[in-house]
Amino acid sequence: MTTYVHDFSDGDKDQKDLLGGKGANLAEMTNLGLPVPPGFTITTEACRAYLAAGHEPDGLADEVSAHLATLEAAMGRRLGDPADPLLVSVRSGAKFSMPGMMETVLNIGLNDESVVGLAAQSDDERFATDSYRRLLQMFGSTVLGIESEVFAEAHDALKKERGTVEDLDLGVDDLRALVATYKKAILEHAGREFPQDPREQMDLAVRAVFDSWNTDRAVLYRRQEQIPEDLGTAVNIQAMVFGNRGMSSGSGVCFTRDPASGAQGVYGDYLQNAQGEDVVAGIRNTVSLADLADLDRTSHDELLAIMATLEKHYRDMCDIEFTIERGKLWMLQTRVGKRTPEAAFRIAVHMVDEGLIDLDEALRRVSGAQLAQLMFPRFDPGAERTLLATGMNASPGAAVGKAVFDWGTAVEWAERGEDVILVRKETSPDDLHGMVVAKGILTSRGGKTSHAAVVARGMGRTCVCGAEALDVDTKEGRFTVRGGKTVHEGDLISIDGSTGEIFDGAVPVVDSHVVRYFEGDDVDDPVVSAVTRLVEHADSTRRLRVRTNADTAPDAARARRFGAQGIGLCRTEHMFLGDRRQLVEDLIVADDDAGQEAALQALLPLQRADFTEILEAMDGLPVTIRLIDPPLHEFLPDLTELSVAMAVADVRGHRKKRQRKLLEAVTRLHEQNPMLGLRGVRLGIVIPGLFTMQARAILEATAARVRAGGAPQPEIMIPLVASVRELDLVRHRIADVARDVAEETGIDLAFKVGTMIELPRAALTAGQIAGSAEFFSFGTNDLTQMTWGFSRDDVEASFFGTYLEQGVFPVSPFESLDTEGVGSLVRTAVRLGREARPDLHLGVCGEHGGDPASIHFFDEVGLDYVSCSPFRVPVARLEAGRSAVR
Amino acid sequence: MTTYVHDFSDGDKDQKDLLGGKGANLAEMTNLGLPVPPGFTITTEACRAYLAAGHEPDGLADEVSAHLATLEAAMGRRLGDPADPLLVSVRSGAKFSMPGMMETVLNIGLNDESVVGLAAQSDDERFATDSYRRLLQMFGSTVLGIESEVFAEAHDALKKERGTVEDLDLGVDDLRALVATYKKAILEHAGREFPQDPREQMDLAVRAVFDSWNTDRAVLYRRQEQIPEDLGTAVNIQAMVFGNRGMSSGSGVCFTRDPASGAQGVYGDYLQNAQGEDVVAGIRNTVSLADLADLDRTSHDELLAIMATLEKHYRDMCDIEFTIERGKLWMLQTRVGKRTPEAAFRIAVHMVDEGLIDLDEALRRVSGAQLAQLMFPRFDPGAERTLLATGMNASPGAAVGKAVFDWGTAVEWAERGEDVILVRKETSPDDLHGMVVAKGILTSRGGKTSHAAVVARGMGRTCVCGAEALDVDTKEGRFTVRGGKTVHEGDLISIDGSTGEIFDGAVPVVDSHVVRYFEGDDVDDPVVSAVTRLVEHADSTRRLRVRTNADTAPDAARARRFGAQGIGLCRTEHMFLGDRRQLVEDLIVADDDAGQEAALQALLPLQRADFTEILEAMDGLPVTIRLIDPPLHEFLPDLTELSVAMAVADVRGHRKKRQRKLLEAVTRLHEQNPMLGLRGVRLGIVIPGLFTMQARAILEATAARVRAGGAPQPEIMIPLVASVRELDLVRHRIADVARDVAEETGIDLAFKVGTMIELPRAALTAGQIAGSAEFFSFGTNDLTQMTWGFSRDDVEASFFGTYLEQGVFPVSPFESLDTEGVGSLVRTAVRLGREARPDLHLGVCGEHGGDPASIHFFDEVGLDYVSCSPFRVPVARLEAGRSAVR
């Protein structure tokens, strides 16, 4: 028969699946002999059985009775005994901590009779009555589902009547009156009396914990965090101890190291004559652990000894909740503590030096996401700042600019060179232009899946959203902080996308120390030392190589400083912009082959110079150059804009011959769905001269580099191949060019030809394609677009918010690879490709190459390298190492 | 050791792989004891060895010598013997007949000496000299690669000099002069003398046949017809017999049945005193087989006996070439004869009745493509017509209209209700508008893979292309038939896309008898009887069911008459056009929920009426209704056009409030890639009211039909699902609606909910999706778009021509399913889907559902049904039957 209830002494910290996080750690501490108030845990299995059946499983009630009897015997009191009641807390505890679930009901066991007994036993009638008041309030709101405002308002009304704002100013009679008011409120709002039977109180609280697994908020949270739906929660029932029994009592929270800086040494807050909830609520000022030593040296010393024990035992920084009841220390909770990115790196490295863990374990304890946080510019920690409000940290970074309230103004001001922050109640697709030009985006509504948040993350723009304290008036061009300052259009503000903070004026921004270090600056910062130590350890363990996406020599050089082992994607289309746009226009509007050839000849030396510089910057390392990919009309003006301009010119009787010719070309090349049109290898087949010119430029650059004594390693990559025949057509032309260049230069040219795998068909026929390709590079952006059938440009704005909210995906598949759908194509292509050509070289150059979760996937399926933007290179190095020690 | 040469007596008709079609059939006839001039075949294997090595394989020459010796012994003459020469023909013969390859060189063995011997032996100096002249001409052009015009011009010049146009008017001296002229021409153009050595003549001819395997035209043809590159061709060397040795000689071609009408009874042409090439060239008028009886009763009777033998032996209609040399009948070739679609059906059924074959075999001998041909309207066979010229039959159908020469005029005239034929030298994407509105398209340049041909087939428009006899002058708006009539803009012309013929004036068009029969007309036509008999047999053998794509009750009713077993795709977006467009506009531009709800409420009764009618028309059969799929902006005006109109209005100072609001909506909904945007299930999730309204309309219609005593079988289909979660969100809402409607009507509603599989991700995660779908319908149009990453709208015009020419695919993947790429996703989805839900119902509703080749694939992978347009239903029934007897 299944056992649904375990005593704290009957479990350990590794049983989080069964006992939840809180329960497992209480069991661990109990077994370490630490002073934990006794109790027991109802398992997640019981919860699952309850949720499946719709009622408590058979046998649960009896098991609870048995464990309760043991607890009563241990404490020498009976639950709700009118003379000397045992009181218990009922707390939820899932495997993963989860907002939206019911958390705690304290003081279970009090009723109209036992409150008298508690008063007598404690010799403190006020304490007993206040405890009863707290039970009614918690039970009413969390178990019976009454709005907590109902109780808060009654409490506030009473304090107002007494002319005070302090809870402690209320006397016994006041509290007794409040108890009566609360009981009336419960009857009115829940349609039932507050249950006087202590066991019924407990059973209802347990059931409420079970039910809270399925609140909307909990479901949404699980969906977003990819926590399985079917885990269920455990429930912990524990004898109450009281930190609010006078000045020799109190409650505290402490950490075995500083969770903010990572500095060695304990860190904590203590509040005299208070329960845990009061510490968290911040009603009164807490004191430090050092001050506790002055107040209660014995408890202090015992606590520090316990902290040392726990850290040594857990081999990690611990977060601890404790209560002192009349000079007796009790441990209420511990867990591995949350920490800032800075602290994560420093603590991990300190613990290696202290011999607690090895470097592999240290690597497991930090993450690429944390490192990425450390690489954003941030507000100067030493600078003064005025916090206006705090919203949600929707997209990281530190942005400073003038507040503007509509996209038109944003564009206008940005065009004249001003930094702007776009402030809206919420954004819509109409705001897109403004979001593109703004340094940051600030909204007063919407969560992390709102339009603003999704789009900002997509474009890497700093964003704070859902700052509800702001009253935004876009018509008047201002926002007012609730009960505070008004900011007008043009006023400077600063927003921190990593913390959600909004500051008045311009807070100075400083570059990341980590970035400065990689850039070669001499930086003396313990965080930087910790980061570099772990990144270097990652380098020594990882199988996966890390390349970069870079289109220019300066980018390539920077990426090399960041540790890139070559270029995985050098896009050539950016080289066709700027001054050269005219040549590309000439190429496109050319009436005949001669005109086209002339334009190509003019582009050739420019491209050769581009490639020579890039090969030089990456000398000795592979450089994968993708031949031109986007549709040609991307180099021409927009059809609608040009049509409007020409129509207006017509009406006004102006003549614009060149523009007219341009409009003809734009109309001819216009496509309903350019993403699905004439681009990539298709261009290379329809206009062979384009690819041939680029191949020649690459190979002439290679020859020039060889002549200069370099070691160029060019890899020519053909985009958008769907069928091996396409690749063959281009490959043969490249071979012809190579023969010509080798003859002309007399230099033996070493180079590779390969292809992108970015269309589902390429993945599905990868065996054939591998016969003609020396390498594959997965273009996971396009592969995601085609596999899901949506284009990033179009859909992030229009429905990704809804999709994230509704749980279609927990994170945009453009941020983190969809391993189920897109990933299965990657697996297929790897398998077929390697079967056909065992030495096939495999990499990825989509943006997923810099995404931590995706990097682990790419390592697992056996790619040889990932490629990502220069700034992401250290992140990828770290994650590739973490994947290796997984 | 490999044997490269086989005597005719050493082979049979099933050895086409080794001996080629011609060689295998010559062997078969030889072994049947028919009078075949003796000879031998050099195998395809020899050709492959030659092509691989670049020279004749070892041993080939010796084998040829040995077989030649046998042949010489049998004939009692030696090759090129000056006194009494053996002459041979050298003919290519691949497994599949293939234009573009060298075909025949006759009279090998003649030279300056043996021509004298031949003259003496035949006692006919003119015959001998003419035979030598023919050898020089054929050898010069086909073996030595000299333009055939060189010889034709010399021949014509001589006849002109002699004041005649008849070959027979040239005397011996003239022919001797022509021999001298030809020899000079060979020296001049080929840079070598005509080889006098008979064996060298033969070896060069054999080599020329081998080499002709790789001419551009042959390669292109193979690519287009999907004939493997590596088959190679055989070469047949056969003793010459002469039909040109006086009036008791002659040559003929005959068929064992009429290949045009399929009528029983022999059919053929005979030409006295002529060689086979003269019959084909049509220089003089041939006579019928009946006339042959009068000319040479013995040969006639022998021929008829042989024809009967062959037909009985081959169990099919045979196409025969024969020669009579001085009263002796010789069989030169036979093969299963090509036939018109009409003949194919009639012959197959006749042979069943004659006990030659069974119905399964009859079914194998006809095709859906042939049936489709019979279902096009065609020109009244009895009507008079004036043929102007013949081009290529690029896209079938019969079209009549006024000739127009630019797309602007096409659009203008079509808008005022005129039928037009767009005539161009060749078309470009600019002509697209004109092609859309034209009844037919006619070009003077380009083949079946030209832009005009590809686009016309894609849109089902009649097209004749590459009519080289037309001199098209688009500027002047006219075309002139070479040496003939001039047609001006506005003149009526008729084009037959099935034959390539271009007629002057309006040829009356008649409906297909087959279509009229299915429509219920009383048609007395032997072709129709044959068709229905085979379609009915197909029905009795096929596993695959055939449904139709129909959006209206009349279409549904028609499809039912055509044999549809339900609706596989009822699109609902067409129901939102016309009068209802205004309501849809209201829905889209609605400022608030109330406005949206009002528009939906107005649409509900209209949709309900739509569905009631369709369910009634298909009563008792399943009706799959797809909820709205396209992006909303498809119901709004074009962004560019509207922008231009508004800009012009602005300049002119006009105010257009509603239009301005519309422009706002159009701009808001504008997408870069609408195909990859907010459509399908995404719309249903973002605007839930839309799908809910449609589901309610379907279920209310179902209830109404049940109340009326009907047996409705609605199936609700969700488009564009990529993830099971999307399907679940919509499915639960539909379930809610169903509960409501069931309660409101008191009727127990039976219906299914399923999804399209049209995105790669849906196919890849079909196992999960099947958990929530009762049926899958493969949307192979979209699946093709996403798998290849190109959209049909954009690419057929821009690069499909090039892709077909370059052999990236042999046929557009939108016409015939790409079984390798797209097909592998279909296989995966079928496997995963059926594993998860064994009773999952599977169908296809893309246009591939009506394509013969694709139907076989769908049968093979185990789909339950295909769905296609009403007119394609009989084709699909036939092909499904053919697949079953495969």
TrEMBL record, chains A, B:
<feature type="active site" description="Tele-phosphohistidine intermediate">
    <location>
        <position position="451"/>
    </location>
</feature>
<feature type="binding site">
    <location>
        <position position="780"/>
    </location>
    <ligand>
        <name>substrate</name>
    </ligand>
</feature>
<keyword id="KW-0808">Transferase</keyword>
<dbReference type="GO" id="GO:0050242">
    <property type="term" value="F:pyruvate, phosphate dikinase activity"/>
</dbReference>
<feature type="domain" description="Pyruvate phosphate dikinase AMP/ATP-binding">
    <location>
        <begin position="294"/>
        <end position="348"/>
    </location>
</feature>
<keyword id="KW-0418">Kinase</keyword>
<dbReference type="GO" id="GO:0016301">
    <property type="term" value="F:kinase activity"/>
</dbReference>
<feature type="domain" description="PEP-utilising enzyme mobile">
    <location>
        <begin position="418"/>
        <end position="500"/>
    </location>
</feature>
<keyword id="KW-0067">ATP-binding</keyword>
<dbReference type="InterPro" id="IPR036637">
    <property type="entry name" value="Phosphohistidine_dom_sf"/>
</dbReference>
<feature type="binding site">
    <location>
        <position position="779"/>
    </location>
    <ligand>
        <name>substrate</name>
    </ligand>
</feature>
<feature type="binding site">
    <location>
        <position position="758"/>
    </location>
    <ligand>
        <name>substrate</name>
    </ligand>
</feature>
<dbReference type="InterPro" id="IPR000121">
    <property type="entry name" value="PEP_util_C"/>
</dbReference>
<keyword id="KW-0479">Metal-binding</keyword>
<dbReference type="Pfam" id="PF01326">
    <property type="entry name" value="PPDK_N"/>
</dbReference>
<dbReference type="Pfam" id="PF00391">
    <property type="entry name" value="PEP-utilizers"/>
</dbReference>
<dbReference type="InterPro" id="IPR015813">
    <property type="entry name" value="Pyrv/PenolPyrv_kinase-like_dom"/>
</dbReference>
<feature type="binding site">
    <location>
        <position position="571"/>
    </location>
    <ligand>
        <name>substrate</name>
    </ligand>
</feature>
<feature type="binding site">
    <location>
        <position position="782"/>
    </location>
    <ligand>
        <name>Mg(2+)</name>
    </ligand>
</feature>
<dbReference type="InterPro" id="IPR018274">
    <property type="entry name" value="PEP_util_AS"/>
</dbReference>
<dbReference type="InterPro" id="IPR040442">
    <property type="entry name" value="Pyrv_kinase-like_dom_sf"/>
</dbReference>
<feature type="domain" description="PEP-utilising enzyme C-terminal">
    <location>
        <begin position="536"/>
        <end position="880"/>
    </location>
</feature>
<dbReference type="InterPro" id="IPR008279">
    <property type="entry name" value="PEP-util_enz_mobile_dom"/>
</dbReference>
<dbReference type="GO" id="GO:0005524">
    <property type="term" value="F:ATP binding"/>
</dbReference>
<dbReference type="GO" id="GO:0046872">
    <property type="term" value="F:metal ion binding"/>
</dbReference>
<feature type="domain" description="Pyruvate phosphate dikinase AMP/ATP-binding">
    <location>
        <begin position="60"/>
        <end position="285"/>
    </location>
</feature>
<keyword id="KW-0547">Nucleotide-binding</keyword>
<feature type="active site" description="Proton donor">
    <location>
        <position position="845"/>
    </location>
</feature>
<protein>
    <recommendedName>
        <fullName>Pyruvate, phosphate dikinase</fullName>
        <ecNumber>2.7.9.1</ecNumber>
    </recommendedName>
</protein>
<comment type="similarity">
    <text>Belongs to the PEP-utilizing enzyme family.</text>
</comment>
<dbReference type="Pfam" id="PF02896">
    <property type="entry name" value="PEP-utilizers_C"/>
</dbReference>
<feature type="binding site">
    <location>
        <position position="782"/>
    </location>
    <ligand>
        <name>substrate</name>
    </ligand>
</feature>
<feature type="binding site">
    <location>
        <position position="781"/>
    </location>
    <ligand>
        <name>substrate</name>
    </ligand>
</feature>
<feature type="binding site">
    <location>
        <position position="626"/>
    </location>
    <ligand>
        <name>substrate</name>
    </ligand>
</feature>
<feature type="binding site">
    <location>
        <position position="758"/>
    </location>
    <ligand>
        <name>Mg(2+)</name>
    </ligand>
</feature>
<keyword id="KW-0460">Magnesium</keyword>
<dbReference type="InterPro" id="IPR013815">
    <property type="entry name" value="ATP_grasp_subdomain_1"/>
</dbReference>
<dbReference type="InterPro" id="IPR010121">
    <property type="entry name" value="Pyruvate_phosphate_dikinase"/>
</dbReference>
<dbReference type="InterPro" id="IPR002192">
    <property type="entry name" value="PPDK_AMP/ATP-bd"/>
</dbReference>
<keyword id="KW-0670">Pyruvate</keyword>
